[in-house]
Amino acid sequence: MKIVTQVKLMPEADHAAALRSTLRTANDLACWVSEVAFVNDVPREYELRKHTYAHLKASGLGAQAAQHVIKKVRDAYTTLRANIHAGNLGKSTSKRRIKAQSKPIMFRPDAAQPYDDRCLSWQYDQQTVSIWTMRGRIKKVRFVCSADALKVLQRYRKGESDLIERDGAFYLIATCEIPEAAPYEPDHFIGVDLGIVNIATTSTGYQATGRQLTRYRKRQLALRAKLQKKRTKSTKRRLKERSRREQRHVKNTNHIIAKTIVTEAARTSAGICLEELKGIRQRVRLRKPQRVALHSWAFAQLGEFIVYKARRAGVPVVYVDPAYSSKECADCGHVDRLNRISQATFVCRSCGVVAHADRNASRVLARRGENVWTAGRESRVPATP
Ligand SMILES: [Zn+2]
Questions:
Q1: pTM
Q2: Gap between the Cα atoms of 121 and 141, Å rounded
Q3: pLDDT in tens, 136-175
Q4: Which residues have their alpha-adjacent CB atom under 5 A from ion ligand 1?
């Protein structure tokens, strides 16, 4: 499975200048290639190369960098087409779509530029890279990352990396190809219920409350509101920094939750059952104060982390439809809107069982997961005559 790992470059001043001018030039030229693609209607790589390669080389890009610029432009148009096709930009009459189609795709001066192994090499033990720039190859550029990330890079980095600039700092985003463990046959399933008050509740009793995250976000929101009143350049920068810090915080929390759930599953030979996430924003009806609590991307990210860690550990994961899981009794299967008497409490109208609402839902999900797995296994293994 592919993942990306990010490292921060710590270049000397002159090296930083070389990286910056390289990114600027590559992106300026990408804008130019994009115009050529747009005007001549040649989004295909081969034709685009015929129109642009010589000029790119003459502008000082190396052969690899020129190819990467052309490919980057081609990929951007492919993505735009796919997005239009998928309806992500609305109908053919929508303003957004018309705007997107009426002019060439632009590249920001600090947009990502891909590097392959011929223009970028890694020295993991020294924590340095050697990287091609418009001013020649620069060597021994130090990079920093976590010890875990370094291990992953050293073992699994493969293929292209992207160079980006963000708030004046340079980062490399490396692709890593992580091996997966063969999934085992699970003894049982752990259901994971996702929500706002409790971010994740499992059928085996683990619960990650959203209280801390909500409190954190509230504080951030208050600070943001204060900053937003002043529309200066520095407050804009600080707002951006804040939102990034907040994203890192959520990401960190999600990592911990995912690790806890997957570790338990692996230890007890269990599978994990997740809700299909498409509808989480619609499903979780938010009262106004909760709207600040968590974005749907945070849940999607938690799901991704669980799947990623599970695949590495060989833990089977199944998805089920979460419909009515909060209204169904895990003990007797009775479905009733009135079963859930409050946010926290579930009382079955049929068998009278009293349970924590999210815990009950996670047990319902666990059973559905087991059913999905069994049905899948029966269809995989032909019946013996
Ligand atoms: Zn019941």
A1: 0.72
A2: 11
A3: 999 999 999 999 899 999 999 999 999 999 888 999 999 9
A4: 329, 331-332, 334, 348, 350-351
